[in-house]
Amino acid sequence: MKPVGLLLFLSFAAYTHAQGFNPENTVLALSKLRPKLWYGGPGVEIKYGTGFCLDSDCRFVGTNYHVAMLTSLPLKIKGEQVVQRYLATGPDDEGAMVTDGADGSGINPMKYNRSRDLAVFELRRPLSRKGFYGLALSRDGLQNGQGVDIYAYPKGAINPRRTLTRFPGRFLRETKDDLLAFSYESPIKVKPGASGGIVVSSGKIVGVLSGVAKNGDTVAFAVPVRSLADFLSKAQPYLHAQLFPGDVKVSPVAADLYPEWIPPAPSGALQHRPEEPAEIRWLRRKAQDLADSIRNFIAVQTFAWGTDNKNPVTFAEYEIQVIDGRQRFRDYPDGKKIHENVPFPPVNTVMVPGGEWSELPKRVGTDLNLKVDQAEDTVVNGKRVLVFQYHADVEDKVCQWRTSVDFGFYVHNKDSWVACYGEVWTDENFNILRISENARLLNGGWQDYRAVVTYDWLTMSGKESKLIPATIASQVDYKQKVYWCRGLFTKYQVFGTKVRILPPGSN
Prior knowledge:
- By secondary structure, this protein is mainly beta.
- Helix content is 10%, strand content 42%.
- It has 2 domains: 23-226, Thrombin, subunit H (Beta Barrel); 278-501, outer membrane lipoprotein receptor (LolB), chain A, CATH 2.50.20.
- Helix 2 crosses helix 3 (237-243) and helix 4 packs antiparallel against helix 5 (356-366).
- The chain is elongated.
Protein backbone atom coordinates (compact mmCIF):
# COMPACT_ATOMS: atom_id res chain seq x y z
CA MET A 1 0.00 0.00 0.00
CA LYS A 2 1.21 3.51 -0.73
CA PRO A 3 -0.19 6.85 0.48
CA VAL A 4 -1.80 9.01 -2.17
CA GLY A 5 -1.28 12.62 -1.21
CA LEU A 6 0.47 15.46 0.54
CA LEU A 7 -0.83 18.68 2.03
CA LEU A 8 -2.94 21.41 0.46
CA PHE A 9 -4.29 24.61 1.93
CA LEU A 10 -5.74 26.18 -1.22
CA SER A 11 -8.97 25.19 -2.91
CA PHE A 12 -10.06 25.90 -6.45
CA ALA A 13 -13.46 24.18 -6.31
CA ALA A 14 -16.60 26.27 -5.94
CA TYR A 15 -19.14 25.34 -3.29
CA THR A 16 -22.89 25.69 -3.16
CA HIS A 17 -25.01 25.03 -0.09
CA ALA A 18 -27.77 22.51 -0.81
CA GLN A 19 -30.13 20.29 1.07
CA GLY A 20 -28.67 16.89 1.88
CA PHE A 21 -25.09 15.81 1.24
CA ASN A 22 -23.13 17.89 -1.21
CA PRO A 23 -19.51 16.66 -1.23
CA GLU A 24 -18.20 20.08 -2.27
CA ASN A 25 -19.51 21.42 1.05
CA THR A 26 -17.72 18.72 3.08
CA VAL A 27 -14.52 17.73 1.26
CA LEU A 28 -11.66 20.27 1.12
CA ALA A 29 -8.76 20.51 -1.30
CA LEU A 30 -5.52 21.13 0.59
CA SER A 31 -2.05 22.09 -0.61
CA LYS A 32 1.30 23.36 0.54
CA LEU A 33 3.67 25.54 -1.44
CA ARG A 34 7.35 25.53 -0.52
CA PRO A 35 10.46 26.99 -2.17
CA LYS A 36 12.73 24.54 -3.96
CA LEU A 37 15.89 24.83 -6.01
CA TRP A 38 15.49 23.39 -9.48
CA TYR A 39 18.22 22.87 -12.06
CA GLY A 40 17.30 26.16 -13.71
CA GLY A 41 17.24 28.10 -10.43
CA PRO A 42 14.79 28.80 -7.60
CA GLY A 43 11.20 27.64 -7.92
CA VAL A 44 8.13 26.51 -6.00
CA GLU A 45 7.02 22.95 -5.22
CA ILE A 46 3.35 22.25 -4.54
CA LYS A 47 2.31 19.25 -2.43
CA TYR A 48 -1.29 18.06 -2.44
CA GLY A 49 -3.78 16.43 -0.10
CA THR A 50 -7.45 16.32 0.88
CA GLY A 51 -9.33 17.10 4.09
CA PHE A 52 -12.93 17.00 5.24
CA CYS A 53 -15.21 18.73 7.74
CA LEU A 54 -15.57 16.69 10.91
CA ASP A 55 -18.26 18.57 12.84
CA SER A 56 -21.45 20.27 11.71
CA ASP A 57 -19.85 23.75 11.95
CA CYS A 58 -16.65 22.61 10.22
CA ARG A 59 -14.39 24.04 12.90
CA PHE A 60 -12.45 20.76 12.90
CA VAL A 61 -10.91 19.38 9.70
CA GLY A 62 -9.83 15.77 9.41
CA THR A 63 -7.09 14.34 7.18
CA ASN A 64 -4.18 11.85 7.30
CA TYR A 65 -1.16 12.01 9.58
CA HIS A 66 1.16 11.81 6.57
CA VAL A 67 -0.63 14.84 5.12
CA ALA A 68 -0.57 16.92 8.29
CA MET A 69 3.12 16.30 8.94
CA LEU A 70 4.14 18.25 5.86
CA THR A 71 3.47 21.59 7.51
CA SER A 72 3.66 23.28 10.88
CA LEU A 73 1.68 25.96 12.66
CA PRO A 74 0.67 28.66 12.01
CA LEU A 75 -1.27 27.94 8.82
CA LYS A 76 -4.71 28.48 7.37
CA ILE A 77 -7.45 26.41 5.77
CA LYS A 78 -9.87 28.28 3.53
CA GLY A 79 -8.55 31.49 5.05
CA GLU A 80 -9.21 30.44 8.66
CA GLN A 81 -6.27 30.09 11.06
CA VAL A 82 -5.39 26.70 12.53
CA VAL A 83 -4.96 26.90 16.31
CA GLN A 84 -4.25 23.24 17.10
CA ARG A 85 -3.05 20.15 15.27
CA TYR A 86 -3.86 16.72 16.74
CA LEU A 87 -1.88 13.70 15.52
CA ALA A 88 -2.99 10.09 15.97
CA THR A 89 0.36 8.44 15.30
CA GLY A 90 4.05 9.17 14.81
CA PRO A 91 7.49 7.58 14.44
CA ASP A 92 7.49 6.36 18.06
CA ASP A 93 3.99 4.87 17.88
CA GLU A 94 3.62 1.16 18.49
CA GLY A 95 3.48 -0.62 15.15
CA ALA A 96 5.00 2.33 13.24
CA MET A 97 6.59 1.40 9.89
CA VAL A 98 8.52 3.39 7.32
CA THR A 99 6.47 4.18 4.21
CA ASP A 100 7.88 4.60 0.72
CA GLY A 101 7.13 8.33 0.72
CA ALA A 102 3.94 10.22 1.41
CA ASP A 103 3.33 10.71 -2.31
CA GLY A 104 4.31 7.18 -3.29
CA SER A 105 7.54 8.39 -4.87
CA GLY A 106 9.89 7.06 -2.22
CA ILE A 107 11.52 10.48 -1.90
CA ASN A 108 10.13 11.55 1.49
CA PRO A 109 9.66 8.42 3.61
CA MET A 110 7.77 8.69 6.89
CA LYS A 111 7.42 6.36 9.84
CA TYR A 112 3.97 5.96 11.39
CA ASN A 113 1.28 3.39 12.18
CA ARG A 114 -0.87 3.04 9.06
CA SER A 115 -3.92 1.94 11.06
CA ARG A 116 -3.85 5.32 12.83
CA ASP A 117 -2.93 7.49 9.84
CA LEU A 118 -5.14 10.34 11.10
CA ALA A 119 -4.84 13.99 12.05
CA VAL A 120 -7.25 16.79 12.95
CA PHE A 121 -6.87 20.55 12.56
CA GLU A 122 -8.80 22.85 14.89
CA LEU A 123 -9.68 26.22 13.34
CA ARG A 124 -10.12 29.53 15.11
CA ARG A 125 -13.43 30.13 13.33
CA PRO A 126 -15.77 27.59 11.71
CA LEU A 127 -16.03 27.19 7.96
CA SER A 128 -19.82 26.96 8.19
CA ARG A 129 -19.88 30.70 7.60
CA LYS A 130 -18.46 29.91 4.15
CA GLY A 131 -20.97 27.16 3.40
CA PHE A 132 -19.10 24.09 4.68
CA TYR A 133 -20.49 21.45 7.04
CA GLY A 134 -19.68 17.97 8.33
CA LEU A 135 -21.31 14.68 7.46
CA ALA A 136 -22.50 12.00 9.87
CA LEU A 137 -19.94 9.36 10.85
CA SER A 138 -20.60 5.63 11.11
CA ARG A 139 -18.70 3.01 13.10
CA ASP A 140 -20.90 0.20 11.79
CA GLY A 141 -19.22 -2.71 10.07
CA LEU A 142 -19.45 -3.09 6.30
CA GLN A 143 -20.70 -6.12 4.38
CA ASN A 144 -18.64 -7.71 1.61
CA GLY A 145 -19.61 -6.08 -1.65
CA GLN A 146 -21.33 -3.13 0.03
CA GLY A 147 -21.35 -0.09 -2.24
CA VAL A 148 -19.41 3.06 -1.31
CA ASP A 149 -18.35 6.34 -2.85
CA ILE A 150 -14.86 7.80 -2.40
CA TYR A 151 -14.58 11.59 -2.61
CA ALA A 152 -11.18 13.29 -2.89
CA TYR A 153 -9.12 15.90 -4.73
CA PRO A 154 -6.48 13.93 -6.65
CA LYS A 155 -3.71 15.72 -8.49
CA GLY A 156 -4.89 16.91 -11.89
CA ALA A 157 -3.24 16.85 -15.27
CA ILE A 158 -2.84 20.64 -15.14
CA ASN A 159 -1.25 21.96 -11.93
CA PRO A 160 -2.36 23.40 -9.62
CA ARG A 161 -5.98 22.99 -10.70
CA ARG A 162 -7.85 20.02 -9.21
CA THR A 163 -11.48 19.01 -9.09
CA LEU A 164 -13.47 16.97 -6.60
CA THR A 165 -13.65 13.43 -7.94
CA ARG A 166 -16.05 10.62 -7.07
CA PHE A 167 -14.76 7.03 -7.23
CA PRO A 168 -17.64 4.50 -6.96
CA GLY A 169 -16.51 1.32 -5.25
CA ARG A 170 -17.30 -1.73 -3.14
CA PHE A 171 -16.02 -2.98 0.19
CA LEU A 172 -13.64 -5.91 -0.12
CA ARG A 173 -12.27 -6.77 3.33
CA GLU A 174 -10.41 -5.57 6.39
CA THR A 175 -6.65 -5.89 6.07
CA LYS A 176 -4.32 -7.41 8.64
CA ASP A 177 -3.27 -3.91 9.72
CA ASP A 178 -6.92 -2.92 10.44
CA LEU A 179 -7.55 -0.88 7.29
CA LEU A 180 -10.61 -1.05 5.06
CA ALA A 181 -9.94 -2.23 1.49
CA PHE A 182 -12.18 -1.12 -1.39
CA SER A 183 -12.23 -1.85 -5.08
CA TYR A 184 -13.23 1.13 -7.17
CA GLU A 185 -14.45 1.65 -10.72
CA SER A 186 -13.25 4.76 -12.54
CA PRO A 187 -11.69 5.69 -15.87
CA ILE A 188 -8.92 7.30 -13.81
CA LYS A 189 -7.01 5.92 -10.86
CA VAL A 190 -6.79 7.41 -7.38
CA LYS A 191 -3.73 9.65 -7.66
CA PRO A 192 -1.53 11.63 -5.25
CA GLY A 193 -3.48 14.42 -3.59
CA ALA A 194 -6.39 12.17 -2.66
CA SER A 195 -5.06 11.25 0.80
CA GLY A 196 -7.46 12.44 3.49
CA GLY A 197 -10.56 12.04 1.34
CA ILE A 198 -13.68 10.32 2.62
CA VAL A 199 -15.36 6.99 1.98
CA VAL A 200 -19.16 7.34 2.16
CA SER A 201 -21.82 4.64 2.46
CA SER A 202 -25.56 5.25 2.97
CA GLY A 203 -24.92 8.96 3.46
CA LYS A 204 -22.35 8.51 6.26
CA ILE A 205 -18.56 8.60 6.39
CA VAL A 206 -17.17 5.11 7.06
CA GLY A 207 -13.47 5.68 6.42
CA VAL A 208 -10.67 8.16 5.70
CA LEU A 209 -8.80 7.44 2.46
CA SER A 210 -5.12 6.79 3.20
CA GLY A 211 -3.52 4.88 0.32
CA VAL A 212 -3.79 2.70 -2.78
CA ALA A 213 -2.41 -0.67 -3.81
CA LYS A 214 1.23 -0.64 -4.91
CA ASN A 215 0.74 -3.21 -7.67
CA GLY A 216 -1.42 -0.89 -9.75
CA ASP A 217 -4.75 -2.60 -8.95
CA THR A 218 -7.77 -0.33 -8.52
CA VAL A 219 -7.83 -0.94 -4.77
CA ALA A 220 -7.94 1.86 -2.18
CA PHE A 221 -7.39 1.68 1.57
CA ALA A 222 -9.00 3.72 4.33
CA VAL A 223 -8.68 4.15 8.08
CA PRO A 224 -12.03 3.10 9.63
CA VAL A 225 -14.16 5.58 11.58
CA ARG A 226 -13.78 3.49 14.73
CA SER A 227 -10.06 4.38 14.73
CA LEU A 228 -11.01 8.03 14.34
CA ALA A 229 -13.36 7.73 17.33
CA ASP A 230 -10.68 6.10 19.49
CA PHE A 231 -8.21 8.83 18.52
CA LEU A 232 -10.63 11.68 19.31
CA SER A 233 -11.59 10.17 22.66
CA LYS A 234 -8.04 10.95 23.82
CA ALA A 235 -6.96 13.88 21.67
CA GLN A 236 -10.18 15.95 21.71
CA PRO A 237 -12.74 14.55 24.19
CA TYR A 238 -15.09 17.51 23.70
CA LEU A 239 -15.33 16.87 19.96
CA HIS A 240 -15.58 13.12 20.57
CA ALA A 241 -18.58 13.64 22.86
CA GLN A 242 -20.22 15.71 20.13
CA LEU A 243 -19.60 13.30 17.27
CA PHE A 244 -20.02 9.99 19.11
CA PRO A 245 -22.43 10.64 22.03
CA GLY A 246 -23.27 6.96 22.45
CA ASP A 247 -19.59 6.04 22.64
CA VAL A 248 -18.59 8.33 25.48
CA LYS A 249 -17.28 6.72 28.66
CA VAL A 250 -17.61 9.87 30.72
CA SER A 251 -18.70 13.11 29.09
CA PRO A 252 -16.43 16.08 29.81
CA VAL A 253 -19.37 18.49 29.82
CA ALA A 254 -22.48 16.50 30.79
CA ALA A 255 -24.69 17.74 33.60
CA ASP A 256 -24.89 15.95 36.94
CA LEU A 257 -27.16 12.93 37.03
CA TYR A 258 -29.16 13.95 40.09
CA PRO A 259 -30.51 17.13 41.69
CA GLU A 260 -28.49 18.71 44.47
CA TRP A 261 -28.25 16.52 47.56
CA ILE A 262 -28.90 18.37 50.82
CA PRO A 263 -27.85 16.53 53.98
CA PRO A 264 -30.60 16.08 56.58
CA ALA A 265 -30.49 18.61 59.40
CA PRO A 266 -29.18 17.23 62.73
CA SER A 267 -31.87 16.56 65.32
CA GLY A 268 -31.76 16.82 69.10
CA ALA A 269 -28.73 17.60 71.21
CA LEU A 270 -25.15 17.81 69.97
CA GLN A 271 -24.04 14.41 68.76
CA HIS A 272 -20.78 12.77 67.80
CA ARG A 273 -20.09 12.57 64.10
CA PRO A 274 -21.51 9.23 62.89
CA GLU A 275 -19.18 6.79 61.21
CA GLU A 276 -19.44 6.91 57.44
CA PRO A 277 -20.51 3.81 55.48
CA ALA A 278 -17.75 1.57 54.15
CA GLU A 279 -18.38 2.68 50.55
CA ILE A 280 -17.82 6.34 51.39
CA ARG A 281 -14.72 5.55 53.46
CA TRP A 282 -13.35 3.63 50.46
CA LEU A 283 -14.20 6.54 48.15
CA ARG A 284 -12.29 8.95 50.40
CA ARG A 285 -9.29 6.65 50.42
CA LYS A 286 -9.24 6.36 46.63
CA ALA A 287 -9.70 10.13 46.28
CA GLN A 288 -6.71 10.75 48.52
CA ASP A 289 -4.67 8.20 46.59
CA LEU A 290 -5.53 10.05 43.38
CA ALA A 291 -4.59 13.41 44.89
CA ASP A 292 -1.25 12.02 46.06
CA SER A 293 -0.47 10.40 42.70
CA ILE A 294 -0.78 13.61 40.65
CA ARG A 295 1.62 15.76 42.66
CA ASN A 296 4.55 15.40 40.25
CA PHE A 297 4.20 15.53 36.48
CA ILE A 298 4.66 17.68 33.40
CA ALA A 299 2.02 18.02 30.70
CA VAL A 300 0.70 20.41 28.09
CA GLN A 301 -2.54 22.12 29.08
CA THR A 302 -4.62 23.81 26.39
CA PHE A 303 -7.47 26.25 27.01
CA ALA A 304 -10.36 27.60 24.95
CA TRP A 305 -12.61 30.43 26.18
CA GLY A 306 -16.06 31.43 24.97
CA THR A 307 -19.54 32.63 25.91
CA ASP A 308 -22.98 31.01 25.80
CA ASN A 309 -23.29 28.43 23.00
CA LYS A 310 -20.86 30.21 20.70
CA ASN A 311 -17.53 28.99 19.38
CA PRO A 312 -14.34 29.87 21.30
CA VAL A 313 -13.11 33.43 21.04
CA THR A 314 -9.53 32.84 22.21
CA PHE A 315 -7.09 30.01 22.90
CA ALA A 316 -3.95 29.43 24.96
CA GLU A 317 -1.48 26.60 25.51
CA TYR A 318 0.94 26.12 28.42
CA GLU A 319 3.33 23.52 29.72
CA ILE A 320 2.08 22.81 33.22
CA GLN A 321 4.80 21.79 35.66
CA VAL A 322 3.55 20.18 38.88
CA ILE A 323 6.28 19.64 41.47
CA ASP A 324 5.32 18.39 44.92
CA GLY A 325 1.77 19.60 44.29
CA ARG A 326 2.72 23.13 43.21
CA GLN A 327 1.69 24.00 39.68
CA ARG A 328 3.40 26.50 37.41
CA PHE A 329 2.81 27.37 33.76
CA ARG A 330 5.31 27.99 30.98
CA ASP A 331 4.34 29.44 27.61
CA TYR A 332 4.29 26.57 25.13
CA PRO A 333 6.15 25.41 23.10
CA ASP A 334 9.27 27.53 23.56
CA GLY A 335 8.38 30.22 26.11
CA LYS A 336 10.80 31.08 28.88
CA LYS A 337 8.46 32.95 31.23
CA ILE A 338 7.00 30.99 34.14
CA HIS A 339 3.53 31.90 35.49
CA GLU A 340 2.22 30.94 38.92
CA ASN A 341 -1.34 30.91 37.55
CA VAL A 342 -2.94 30.67 34.13
CA PRO A 343 -2.67 34.20 32.66
CA PHE A 344 -5.91 35.95 31.83
CA PRO A 345 -6.65 35.85 28.09
CA PRO A 346 -7.01 39.15 26.17
CA VAL A 347 -10.78 39.58 26.68
CA ASN A 348 -12.61 41.92 29.05
CA THR A 349 -14.65 39.43 31.09
CA VAL A 350 -13.43 35.88 31.53
CA MET A 351 -13.40 32.95 33.91
CA VAL A 352 -10.09 31.12 34.39
CA PRO A 353 -10.09 27.67 36.05
CA GLY A 354 -7.74 27.00 38.91
CA GLY A 355 -6.48 23.72 40.31
CA GLU A 356 -9.82 21.91 40.47
CA TRP A 357 -8.19 18.83 38.94
CA SER A 358 -6.07 18.43 42.11
CA GLU A 359 -8.20 20.27 44.69
CA LEU A 360 -11.39 18.26 44.17
CA PRO A 361 -9.96 14.77 44.84
CA LYS A 362 -8.03 16.15 47.83
CA ARG A 363 -11.21 17.76 49.17
CA VAL A 364 -13.22 14.56 48.78
CA GLY A 365 -10.44 12.55 50.35
CA THR A 366 -9.59 14.59 53.45
CA ASP A 367 -12.13 17.35 54.23
CA LEU A 368 -14.61 15.87 56.70
CA ASN A 369 -16.70 19.06 56.56
CA LEU A 370 -17.63 17.87 53.09
CA LYS A 371 -20.65 15.60 53.57
CA VAL A 372 -20.88 12.66 51.17
CA ASP A 373 -23.74 10.33 50.28
CA GLN A 374 -23.95 7.43 47.85
CA ALA A 375 -26.59 7.82 45.14
CA GLU A 376 -28.05 5.22 42.79
CA ASP A 377 -25.58 3.64 40.38
CA THR A 378 -25.83 4.28 36.66
CA VAL A 379 -24.59 2.69 33.44
CA VAL A 380 -22.31 4.66 31.10
CA ASN A 381 -21.36 3.12 27.75
CA GLY A 382 -22.37 -0.32 28.99
CA LYS A 383 -20.37 -0.15 32.22
CA ARG A 384 -21.56 0.26 35.79
CA VAL A 385 -20.63 3.60 37.35
CA LEU A 386 -20.91 4.38 41.06
CA VAL A 387 -22.24 7.86 41.85
CA PHE A 388 -21.59 9.79 45.07
CA GLN A 389 -22.99 13.23 45.95
CA TYR A 390 -21.38 15.79 48.24
CA HIS A 391 -22.44 19.05 49.87
CA ALA A 392 -20.88 21.82 51.98
CA ASP A 393 -22.44 25.00 53.38
CA VAL A 394 -20.76 28.40 53.55
CA GLU A 395 -19.98 27.97 57.25
CA ASP A 396 -18.18 24.68 56.50
CA LYS A 397 -15.47 26.72 54.73
CA VAL A 398 -14.80 24.04 52.15
CA CYS A 399 -15.24 25.78 48.78
CA GLN A 400 -13.81 29.16 47.83
CA TRP A 401 -14.31 31.60 44.96
CA ARG A 402 -11.88 34.32 43.87
CA THR A 403 -12.88 37.44 41.92
CA SER A 404 -10.02 39.31 40.26
CA VAL A 405 -10.12 42.82 38.79
CA ASP A 406 -7.15 43.72 36.59
CA PHE A 407 -6.36 47.44 36.71
CA GLY A 408 -3.32 47.03 34.49
CA PHE A 409 -0.72 48.06 37.05
CA TYR A 410 -2.07 45.67 39.70
CA VAL A 411 -4.70 42.97 40.19
CA HIS A 412 -7.21 43.16 43.04
CA ASN A 413 -8.35 39.74 44.36
CA LYS A 414 -11.30 39.05 46.62
CA ASP A 415 -11.84 35.57 48.13
CA SER A 416 -15.15 34.33 49.49
CA TRP A 417 -16.37 31.08 51.02
CA VAL A 418 -19.34 29.65 49.13
CA ALA A 419 -21.76 26.77 49.47
CA CYS A 420 -20.99 23.98 47.01
CA TYR A 421 -22.19 20.57 45.92
CA GLY A 422 -21.43 18.05 43.19
CA GLU A 423 -21.02 14.44 42.14
CA VAL A 424 -18.16 11.95 42.07
CA TRP A 425 -18.30 9.13 39.53
CA THR A 426 -16.17 6.01 39.92
CA ASP A 427 -15.83 2.63 38.31
CA GLU A 428 -16.70 -0.54 40.21
CA ASN A 429 -13.29 -0.47 41.90
CA PHE A 430 -13.87 3.09 43.17
CA ASN A 431 -11.36 4.55 40.72
CA ILE A 432 -12.46 8.15 40.15
CA LEU A 433 -13.56 8.98 36.61
CA ARG A 434 -15.25 12.35 37.09
CA ILE A 435 -15.80 15.02 39.76
CA SER A 436 -18.10 18.02 39.41
CA GLU A 437 -18.43 21.16 41.50
CA ASN A 438 -21.35 23.61 41.64
CA ALA A 439 -21.80 26.89 43.50
CA ARG A 440 -25.16 28.64 43.22
CA LEU A 441 -24.47 32.21 44.30
CA LEU A 442 -21.16 34.02 44.23
CA ASN A 443 -20.05 37.57 44.89
CA GLY A 444 -19.70 40.49 42.49
CA GLY A 445 -22.57 39.40 40.25
CA TRP A 446 -21.08 35.99 39.45
CA GLN A 447 -23.59 33.15 39.76
CA ASP A 448 -24.04 29.44 39.16
CA TYR A 449 -20.43 28.35 38.85
CA ARG A 450 -19.94 24.82 37.55
CA ALA A 451 -16.84 22.73 36.85
CA VAL A 452 -16.36 19.16 35.61
CA VAL A 453 -13.01 17.34 35.75
CA THR A 454 -12.52 13.95 34.10
CA TYR A 455 -9.71 11.47 34.72
CA ASP A 456 -8.33 8.77 32.46
CA TRP A 457 -5.84 5.93 32.58
CA LEU A 458 -2.19 6.44 31.75
CA THR A 459 0.50 3.80 31.48
CA MET A 460 4.25 4.30 31.82
CA SER A 461 6.91 2.04 30.37
CA GLY A 462 7.67 -0.69 32.88
CA LYS A 463 5.22 0.66 35.44
CA GLU A 464 1.60 0.09 36.31
CA SER A 465 -1.07 2.41 34.93
CA LYS A 466 -2.39 5.35 36.92
CA LEU A 467 -5.20 7.89 36.75
CA ILE A 468 -4.40 11.38 35.53
CA PRO A 469 -6.54 14.49 34.82
CA ALA A 470 -7.79 14.48 31.23
CA THR A 471 -10.20 17.44 30.87
CA ILE A 472 -11.45 20.39 32.88
CA ALA A 473 -14.55 22.31 31.80
CA SER A 474 -15.91 25.22 33.81
CA GLN A 475 -18.53 27.90 33.36
CA VAL A 476 -20.18 30.73 35.30
CA ASP A 477 -23.06 33.16 34.79
CA TYR A 478 -22.31 36.87 34.81
CA LYS A 479 -24.78 39.60 33.79
CA GLN A 480 -27.02 37.22 31.84
CA LYS A 481 -24.16 35.61 29.95
CA VAL A 482 -22.49 32.24 30.43
CA TYR A 483 -18.70 32.43 30.34
CA TRP A 484 -16.92 29.12 29.87
CA CYS A 485 -13.44 27.66 29.62
CA ARG A 486 -12.49 24.17 28.46
CA GLY A 487 -9.08 22.65 29.01
CA LEU A 488 -7.20 19.51 27.94
CA PHE A 489 -4.18 17.73 29.41
CA THR A 490 -1.90 16.10 26.82
CA LYS A 491 1.75 15.08 26.26
CA TYR A 492 2.29 13.79 29.79
CA GLN A 493 5.68 13.26 31.34
CA VAL A 494 6.49 12.20 34.88
CA PHE A 495 9.84 13.74 35.76
CA GLY A 496 11.03 13.20 32.21
CA THR A 497 9.62 9.68 31.84
CA LYS A 498 7.62 9.44 28.63
CA VAL A 499 4.15 7.94 28.93
CA ARG A 500 1.27 7.03 26.66
CA ILE A 501 -2.47 7.03 27.27
CA LEU A 502 -4.16 3.66 27.34
CA PRO A 503 -6.75 2.87 24.68
CA PRO A 504 -10.44 3.20 25.67
CA GLY A 505 -11.64 0.42 27.94
CA SER A 506 -8.27 -0.30 29.55
CA ASN A 507 -7.98 -0.53 33.33
